[in-house]
Amino acid sequence: MTLNKHAFETASDQLFALDQGAINLQSHIHDKILSIIENHLKALDYTKLVDFFRFQKGEFAAGEFWGKTVRSACLAYQYTSDAQLLEILTQSVADLLTTQTEEGCISAFPIDRQPYHSDLWERKYVFLGLLGYYEITQDPAILKAMIKLADYTISQVGPEPKVRIVDTGWAFDGIESSSILEPVMRVYMLTGYQRYLDFAAYIVEEEGACKRENIFEAAFNGRDPKDIGGNGDPAQSIAKAYEMMSCFEGLIEYYRVTGKEHWKEAALKFYNKLLEQEITLLGSGGADKPYNLGPGTGEQWNYTAFEQTNPDIGLMQETCVTVTWMKLCYQLLRLTGDSRIVDEIEKSIHNALIAALKPEGNYFDYFPKFNGTRNSQVNFSYTIGDFPLSCCTANGPMGMALIPFVNVMNSTSGPVVNLYISGDSSVQLPSGRTAQVIIHTDYPKTGSVKIMLALAQNEAFTLKLRIPEWSKQSKLCLNGNEIAAIPGTYAEINHTWSDVDRIELELDMRCRLMDAPIGSNRLGDDFQALVYGPIVLTRDIRFGENINEVVSIISDSEKYVSLTPVVPTVQAHMQFAVPAGQSFFQVIDYASAGTTWDGHSEYRTWCPCPSQH
Questions:
Q1: What are the boundaries of each domain within the chain?
Q2: Distances in Å between the alpha carbon of 608 and those of 306, 535, 539, 611, 613?
Q3: Is 385 left (phi over 0), alpha (psi -120 to 50) or beta?
Q4: Residue 426 above 70 pLDDT?
Q5: Where is the Non-reducing end beta-L-arabinofuranosidase-like GH127 middle domain (predicted)?
């Protein structure tokens, strides 16, 4: 993940990440990140991850695990500055580089099988792992290794007579391999070597990342994501959610350098289509039915936003999709400064992502469900020593480590507060001096947020505060004086700030009653769900209630539900009593449901309701 601006950008970002060590969260999210570091990122045998490159057996996608894990660990280190974690990374990077040949090859495939199957996909993750480590250390040996690997790659892949990139990959006509675009652009940004920009242009402008059609032009022309690359046969669909979004991450990096507005517009159109058609109430997407039945079961675009209550769906919302969606949103947030994008990241964090994490921090649910139980079933994994490492367990820590860098960001005019997670952040002001942004809150348990600044001296700048689109009746005050807070925007406070200034924000936490979307199967119609701020609420059998009963949830004319807060009687962040008919039923936050990972905490999110037809 690229956090900061690059030396060769010509299309300026609007928002920027804070520096390493500048962020200190004080919340359960901080605790979860530490748990992941201790029980996952420090617990893995990295030597065995490097063995995939050392012995080059060419096992499917085995080489992705080193890069995914190291990329996640590098970002976690940037947040925590954990010295032991850095030492593990340093040893593993050095070990990996012993596998690099004089020609520059780092591959888990023998030479006679390069660059086919999952080889380029795995090299992408090698690049991303090395880029993460280089961002921390600025070690010239790492940059040299990346240059050698990039040169080796473009010696094999490109216009004929080289191997066309769309003739590689395992199932998606080049989409998976073409996602190498992102790290290639980042290596270009570090070096300025024209040959890397030429290779990126080849992927974008000439091949379009897919043998069937240019996926970037398809997005620009308004094609629905589920139909991109389609040939009319659902069983041969290549609309693989995770890989396709990865290509668009690379397209955004390409735009940053070239400044071609066409590609920015393509990325934004793709994002908006996903938001409309694919992203569910939990902040993830992709499914195994009903339209696309191709390879990657449960992981293809399928109009999932409309079909999320379809009872025919067996698998959906892969954690890799959740994390990559968050990363794509983060790229576009930096690029556009659109506060509504933070709403989407927040939704994914508090629902699909955190709910997928086992309490021990060492495993992520592959396919988090709306209803049922958490489980350890996976589509794709390797056992590393005695550690069961799935692609989602390798990817999940990246999503968690990204959260601190979204919470508070910076702009050319001053700090930007996004997620309202309690803690403090050190922000460089336009003057070059530093301010501490201090957030006190129990949000999202309640909507009350207090913010103060610690400054070396009084100073004029703009502080931006995200007003979520769902918060229709926010109240924002500076030193007791009310300021406009328009939903779906940043409230921009231009002020000469001092240590005595106090900001108070009350977000509108009225619970919203959501009707099931209208999909292809009428059996999915008669369900409702409850959303409290960014939190999806869920029934759990630990309350001794029939979670599958039909309930008539009482709401007002605007579909707001009056909840009664309850001191949690199970392990949960929040619990409420919901009025239904003449009685109440209990709900907790989705991330706290199902946490026994067995039938003892079966849960239901979309509740059956009386027929509305």
A1: 42-211, 237-399, 415-506, 511-608
A2: 17, 19, 11, 9, 14
A3: left
A4: yes
A5: 417-509
Instruction: Domain 42-211: give its CATH code.
Output: 1.50.10.20
On the question of a common fold for 237-399 and 415-506, the answer reads no
Cα 390 to chain centroid distance, Å, stands at: 17
Q: Flag whether pLDDT at 4 surpasses 50.
A: no
- pTM reported for the whole predicted model: 0.97
Q: Name 389's bridge partners.
A: 382
The residue assigned the tokens 């030492």 is: 87
Amino acid identity of residue 527, one-letter, is: F
Residue 5: what pLDDT?
A: 41
Written as one string, the DSSP assignment of 189-223 is HHH--HHHHHHHHIIIIIITT-SSS-HHHHHHTT-
Q: At what angle do helices 119-137 and 83-97 cross, to 10 degrees?
A: 130
Which of 275, 380, 290 lies closest to 329, judged by CA?
Answer: 275
Q: Tell me: the pLDDT tens digits for 244-292? A: 999 999 999 999 999 999 999 999 999 999 999 999 999 999 999 999 9
Classified as helix, coil or strand, 343 is: helix
Nearest to 121 by CA among 238, 247, 237: 247
Dist. CA 219–CA 560, nearest whole Å: 36
What pLDDT, on the 0 to 100 scale, is given for residue 613? Answer: 66
| CA pair distance 67, 17, nearest whole angstrom | 22
pLDDT tens readout for residues 303-329: 999 999 999 999 999 999 999 999 999
* Interatomic CA distance for residues 504 and 482, integer angstroms: 9
Which residue stretches of 278-312 are H helix?
304-307
Tell me the CATH class for 237-399: mainly alpha
pLDDT of res. 554: 98
161 upstream amide cis, omega within 30 of 0: yes
CATH 2.60.40 given to domain 415-506: yes
- What is the rounded distance in angstroms from the CA atom of residue 97 to the CA atom of residue 391? 23
In this prediction, residue 86 has a pLDDT band, given cuts at 50, 70 and 90, of: very high
Per-residue pLDDT tens digits for 164-192? 999 999 999 999 999 999 999 999 999 99
| 496 close to 460: Cβ distance less than 8 angstroms | yes
Please give the DSSP secondary-structure letter assigned to residue 351.
I
* Residue 354 near residue 573 (C-beta atoms within 8 A): no
Specify the residue for token string 């990972």. 597
Q: What is the C-alpha separation between 335 and 99, in angstroms, rounded?
A: 37
Q: Is 315 exposed, middle or buried (0-12, 13-18, 19+ CB in 10 A)?
A: middle
d(CA 383, CA 378): 12
- Are 319 and 377 contacting, i.e. CB atoms less than 8 angstroms apart? no
